[in-house]
Amino acid sequence: MSKPSLSRFSRRNFLHGASAAAVAFAALPRRGWGAEEKKLNVYNWDTYIGETTLTTFTDTTGIAVQYDLFANNEELFAKLKAGNPGYDVIFPSDSYVADMISLNMLMPIDHGKIPNLKNIDPDPNFSNPAFNPGLKFGVPYMWGTIGVGYRKSKVETPTSWGDLLDSDKYSQRIALLADARSVMGIALKYLGYSMNTTNQDELDKVRDLLVKQKPHIKTFAPDSGQDLLLSGEVDIVMEWNGDIISTMEEDADLAYVVPKEGTQVWTDNICIPVGAPHPENAHAFLNHIHDPEVNAEIANTIKYATANKAAKAFLPTEDLANPAIYPPSEVVSNSESLVSVGDFTPMYDRAWTEILAA
Amino acid sequence: MTDIAAKPAVAAAPRRRRAQITPLEYTRRRWLQIVLLANFFFLYFPIVALVAFSFNDSKRNITWQGFTLKYYRQAYENAALHEAFTNSMIIAATSTLVSTALGTMLGVALHRYRFPGKGAFDGWIHLPIVIPEICMGVAMLAFFAAVNIQLGLFTVTVSHIAFSIPFVAVVIRARMSGFDEALEEASRDLGADRWQTFWNVTFPYLLPGVVAGALLALTLSLDDFVITFFTSGPGSTTFPVKIYSMVRFSVTPEVNAASTVLIVLTLTLTVTAMVIQSRSTRKMTARG
Amino acid sequence: MQDWRRDKRAFGVLILPPSAWLVLFFTLPLAIVWVYSFGERGPLGQTLLALSFDNYGRAVEWINLSIILKSVWIAAVTTAICLVLGFPLAMGIAFAPARYKNLLLLLVILPFWTNLLIRTYAWIAVLRTKGYLNFALEWVHERIGAVLSLLGLPDLLGPFEPLLLLYNQPAVIIGLVYVNLPFLVLPVYATLEKLDKSYLEASLDLGAGQWRTLFSVTAPLAFPGIFTGLLLVFILALGTFLTPDLLGGPRSIMIGNLIAQQFGPARDWPFGSALSFLLMYATFVFLWIKAAVARQGGGVSY
After folding, report:
1. Which segments within chain A are labelled E, that is strand?
2. The complex's ipTM?
């Protein structure tokens, strides 16, 4: 039998291979162990940062940025709820900041490490909001409205949310957001109730309204409504203003409007979650975002309204005068912001699950 | 009545002498050929279209605008894709090594030994193969949350090993079923101890099975999406999970380019596996 | 096969490490989910341990039961279509001349070796409103319109209405058929391959037509393989998550998506755990049926 030569060869080969692999594996860079390395894990919405923001940050500080995306607040919240999987910087919206604070999920920020805080708009909505008094647990980022994006050639100018929520006029050409509280909040506003109601009857009415409308809704688009609008998959969407405005640059047939019932005015914030592996780098990042020129570049790319007053000096006047980006006071006063509903949250979650399941 | 009678008239065309189609040669009948062709078109068209449109010079990637390689370059320069790719490689390599070792041990043990409760044990071992992936994914998530292990490369690798072990065991067991125990007995009779017998007699026979199992584990790990989706954290995204994120958010030809790279990679591995397997079985049979 | 007692040490060395791994990193997680399924959900999404059957009760509430039934329906339709498409394919390969067989088999399996995610994503570009299928249909529509106008006939077809084939049930079914077809073709092929062709020839010689032979002789003989394939496709389609996630719409979510939702945005791990176990029990039931039928039919194992 000539087997022995083959078996010795293969045994040696196997041992060689195994030991080589072991050495290679041991030589791999240890992730996240030891002192704060030059890394930062950012978890943000899609298309919600400037084109050069991250590269200028890395250039000035030498910190490499790992940039992950989420589609809505629920997804962000769910990911962090089970324990911070390693994110340093997150971008939650107003009511979710309040929820996270009450659940001790956010780290208080050291204002001393963020000198650019002085650039924040002194208006109390930004410098001392109810959901984050004294900016203790985060800094404001961008703010805006939710409205209707539509294709002018296929849809007559919508004046009411009813076109999306309560009518079959555009059946199967409608896309809504996948944000539970935003969609239900706007439906509540359409029915004349408060977006933050804790009245179960009102919530049930909204649930029934949306369940009835479901056959006409093509999809609940998680942050991709503007793409569906652009590709012609749908002709009328509920979307955040900046998303639609930046797509209008690519297709002049698109437009944005806030219906007469009013809408949700939201403020997004930058926070540092508890358990962040690189809090020092996170503070440096927050500071970088509020550098006036960096901030202006972001606002100019994503077409949202910035909470940074000093940055406005660097923004083009058409944007500052654009009522879609910087809504006038009548729109704001007719609108509402979301607040935490505390113990009533499971009712909202239940209603949303029922809407999605129907 | 059979419709064979109709055939000879067709087959009698003078230019080409065609043998008469026998009743069972279904594949030679036109209608089945059409069905086969339609099936293969159905199977291949979407993938071919996806690969073709990775070269499309259009950001929205709806209509063909021209040929370009720039999205491959974009994918190549995409640091996040790179990291995802590296992670996939690391996880796949580790998972393959460990699960092949453990799976081989399991397969040999199952083949060789009789023990009480073997039937139930057998069923239990096969659970990771039959369980819906979503069930295993959420179970792993719940487990790591409960014991407070941060999601990362470790959690993904551990999960991959867990679902790969049974697959390797099945392959090894199948291979072992063709093994002639008499060879081992002969080796022992000739004075070799158990360890020597295993390495010099059993293992060489087992090797093609081990290689097949290893390649299976490798492909399972590289391709896995659902379980990885639930067990990965920032910095431990794998290639398929990153592509999913790109599909959800920014659908440009870059996604197609990244997908094509993954397709080419897995196909190359699979073809290599088959070539090695067929060559080694040919060598084995040639040898004796 | 030896008794384990004769070789306790070797047996222990071989079987303990893999078993330990599977206990720790498979059984234990499942046990945790099982415990959670009896738990309760705290107000902001925490999981509280309890001993309640509420979650299972919720699973059979109509709103969730309808999703379960919808999933069963989609899986059944998928299985039926796979049979209709896959059986001729398997027949074609099994009866192909020997030199083509392996090639044909390879061609069927090759797409299967590409990533599930990619294969599903590829269909988006085909099925969407501005997708390849609608482009092709529009082209045909235009040609017909051109021919009609050439013949001087009025425009009978009207303007082109694209087929709405994405983000709905048909899309999910097409995606599921595409992904699971090999799982039907392979077992059926394996059985047809081993079939004693003389039975078929005898049937045909005795005067039965092709279709009669197919239904009375071929199909019953190939039944084990067909049944395995059908069951495999059904189980895989039932527990799917990715296909409805990418291709489905708001009215075509399946059990897998519902479970994922509970562990994600809905933050109701106890309910998700209960659903997860219900799906697993269903899978086991179907597998047990398969084993029972296989044992009855002479124990042809795959």
Report:
1. 39-45, 64-70, 89-90, 139-151, 174-177, 217-221, 236-240, 254-257, 265-270, 305-306
2. 0.84
